[in-house]
């Protein structure tokens, strides 16, 4: 092998290595998101934060709902229903009318 053949082989291997690393670098750059895509995703995340509640907010809402349910149960047990009130008032009015007549 003469000097020109060895020199050409070294140049070819060097150019191949440089080409390989450049191609790999450009592929990495292409696979990354652009600035506009990143901004769009940030805006979507911010709008999702406005639409959905966090776990702590959800737990607070569950606690308040439990309090409301217990208050409703208390009211059901300890208050007079509308129909019962009207019936009682009608009886009371009838008794008052009977007292006025008699």
How many angstroms separate the termini?
142 Å
In percent, how helical is the residue content?
A: over 70%
Which ranges are low-confidence, i.e. pLDDT below 50, for 5 or more consecutive residues? none
The helix-strand sequence is HHHH
Features:
102 residues; mainly alpha; 88% helix
List the helices and strands and how they pair.
Layout: H1 3-31, H2 35-51, H3 55-78, H4 82-101
Please give a quick description of this structure.
With 102 residues, the protein is mostly helical.
What does this entry look like structurally?
The chain is mainly alpha-helical and 102 residues long. 88% of the residues lie in helices and 0% in strands. It has 4 helices and no strands. It has helices spanning 3-31, 35-51, 55-78, 82-101. It is rod-shaped and about 140 Å long. The mean pLDDT is 87.
């Amino acid at each position: 092998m003469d000097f020109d053949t060895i020199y050409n082989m070294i140049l070819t291997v060097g150019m191949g290595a440089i080409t390989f690393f450049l191609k790999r670098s450009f592929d990495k750059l292409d696979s990354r998101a652009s600035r506009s895509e990143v901004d769009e995703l940030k805006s979507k995340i911010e709008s999702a934060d406005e639409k959905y509640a966090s776990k702590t907010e959800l737990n607070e809402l569950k606690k308040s709902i439990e309090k409301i349910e217990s208050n409703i149960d208390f009211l059901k047990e300890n208050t007079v229903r509308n129909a019962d009130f009207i019936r009682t008032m009608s009886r009371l009015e009838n008794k008052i009318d009977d007292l006025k007549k008699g």
